[in-house]
Specification:
Keywords: Membrane, Transmembrane, Transmembrane helix. The protein has about 120 residues and is mainly α. The chain has helices spanning about 35-40, 45-55, 60-65, 70-115, and strands spanning about 1-5, 5. The termini are far apart.
Amino acid sequence: MVMNNEIEVLDKPQLPAVAPEASLPVERTIDAGLPPSIRAAVRSHTIIWIVILSIGPLGLPLLWLSPKYPAWSKVVISLATLFFTVILPILVTIYCGEFLVRGLLEAMEEANRAGGAI
């Protein structure tokens, strides 16, 4: 573009007079929005294990919010917790019903057939 015999260069970058300071990237973790007391609990191995061992699966959210455990260990700990708090009691109940109570019931039925109580 020519104006009054002056050439205006349009390809030259226009820089601001003062460059703003670059801000540091904000750390974005899963526990960033938690209150400080919960954030401290999430980062403590001891608290996580005490909660899992005392109230079982209700402590798993603390485990999954914790940045200290890799994903594979969270899965293994979650499966072990669910096994020991859900599956194992069901298996123990079935075992006791089949092998312990059934023998007692058979003994009582045999005693009743014989004409008296145990």
